[in-house]
TrEMBL record:
<keyword id="KW-0235">DNA replication</keyword>
<dbReference type="InterPro" id="IPR013159">
    <property type="entry name" value="DnaA_C"/>
</dbReference>
<dbReference type="Pfam" id="PF08299">
    <property type="entry name" value="Bac_DnaA_C"/>
</dbReference>
<feature type="region of interest" description="Domain IV, binds dsDNA">
    <location>
        <begin position="331"/>
        <end position="451"/>
    </location>
</feature>
<feature type="domain" description="AAA+ ATPase">
    <location>
        <begin position="147"/>
        <end position="279"/>
    </location>
</feature>
<feature type="domain" description="Chromosomal replication initiator DnaA C-terminal">
    <location>
        <begin position="358"/>
        <end position="427"/>
    </location>
</feature>
<dbReference type="Pfam" id="PF11638">
    <property type="entry name" value="DnaA_N"/>
</dbReference>
<dbReference type="GO" id="GO:0008289">
    <property type="term" value="F:lipid binding"/>
</dbReference>
<dbReference type="InterPro" id="IPR013317">
    <property type="entry name" value="DnaA_dom"/>
</dbReference>
<dbReference type="GO" id="GO:0005737">
    <property type="term" value="C:cytoplasm"/>
</dbReference>
<dbReference type="GO" id="GO:0003688">
    <property type="term" value="F:DNA replication origin binding"/>
</dbReference>
<protein>
    <recommendedName>
        <fullName>Chromosomal replication initiator protein DnaA</fullName>
    </recommendedName>
</protein>
<keyword id="KW-0067">ATP-binding</keyword>
<dbReference type="Pfam" id="PF00308">
    <property type="entry name" value="Bac_DnaA"/>
</dbReference>
<dbReference type="InterPro" id="IPR001957">
    <property type="entry name" value="Chromosome_initiator_DnaA"/>
</dbReference>
<dbReference type="InterPro" id="IPR010921">
    <property type="entry name" value="Trp_repressor/repl_initiator"/>
</dbReference>
<dbReference type="GO" id="GO:0006275">
    <property type="term" value="P:regulation of DNA replication"/>
</dbReference>
Amino acid sequence: MDNSELWQSVLAQMQLFISKANFATWFQNTEITSKENGKIVISVPNAFSKEWLNNKYYKLILKTMHDIDNTIKELEFKINPQPSKNFETKEKLESDINIEQLKFDEFKINKETNLNPRYTFENFVVGGFNELAHAAALAVSENPGHTYNPLFIYGGVGLGKTHLMQSIGNKIASNNKKNKVKYIPSEKLVSNIVSAIRSNSMESFKASFTPIDVLIIDDIQFISGKNKSQEEFFHVFNSLYEKNKQIILSSDRPPNAISELEERLKSRFGGGMTIDVSLPDYETRLVILKTKLQEKNMELPEDILEYIASNVKKNIRDLEGALNSLLIYHKINNNVLNLEVAKKLLRGFVFSPFDVANYKKIIETVAKFYNLDEKNLFDQTRRKEIVRPRQIAMFLLRKELKYSFPAIARKFGGKDHTTVIYAYKKILQESEENNKLTEELNLIKQKVYSG
Ligand code: ADP
Ligand code: MG
């Protein structure tokens, strides 16, 4: 790959991370002018760009380049006011690529409902990993308020929760224009509650929910620890529920595993249908890729699709991201994409240092999941709320990282390694018998691997 190809593929990937307007502002008239001893020099048109790129995008650009070529270690931005030949590339980028077609169209979000029309049942791929959630979602969309209320969907990042919930909303809204649907991410809900408290307008805030027939709150786990918001939301929830209005919630974990959530909310959230989405298998990943291509009316060689499906396994968001970055490259370079180039371009998706489980991540994730400080896991105590997470941490170190039992024992303050063996066997055996534990282990693993 020469410098210009390298820069083009960086630009293609940057477009996935930043808005079109920012992209045009900061990457206009930039190019690689030299590459020596792991150092890349990028020319930029003015001091302003230089400062901005250095401060804001240095790491992202470096990581993207490093993923393509791991000899690259350092970047330097140099001011070069001459419009360069790269101008042509830029023009080409802007005119040829219909970014809107490749990417999410943020501008089409319905102002009334906050729903994105792109999320529908028609373009939602169903497989063993999500078929129950899909069936429940369909049932709710056909008979809102009366089938499952609330519908609570949980699972790791990028597995289709938002897509599924919004599909329900879109379907209900289109079935009957009179249905009032509202989609609210929970951060937004919390910030609205906070400002209603500040401005003394809680009554009118609550009243704004009265006409709603279907309320969708995404990522409700963020309400954890926000006591005031929990209290107000409890009332909103109840008044809708009592009128048989449909409530749909999503979270990264089941209601009873959300820490610092009032008991009464846990029981309300879990009082309808609680259902998970997990990871798609290879076959389904391939179907998802083909569905996305069809939607965009584009094509890629089969071997490349198979390569993506067998290597990008973390979640569907990444699967889509990988596909998009290849498509952009494919277009810029006049359809000369082969498997070798694709492999290079996808390094960041296939192998990223962040994807790999390590000791620190396992400890961090287990502690966080059970709402403990990391150091608690190492406390010399037999308290059940510590012993259990500690055993799970030991189990995962063995299972995921293949640590030896004595090595684990050393990490946990020189315990006898038979204690570790005992912990490992206990968790292994229990996970075979106990669904709740299996579910917890899966959620922890998803987090460990999803960065
Ligand atoms: P989550 O809310 O679980 O983090 P999203 O719903 O945002 O995940 O999904 C991430 C991306 O993957 C979205 O672009 C979505 O359209 C796509 N996606 C997820 N699940 C599916 C599916 N089953 N079929 C097609 N696309 C999917
Ligand atoms: Mg989501």
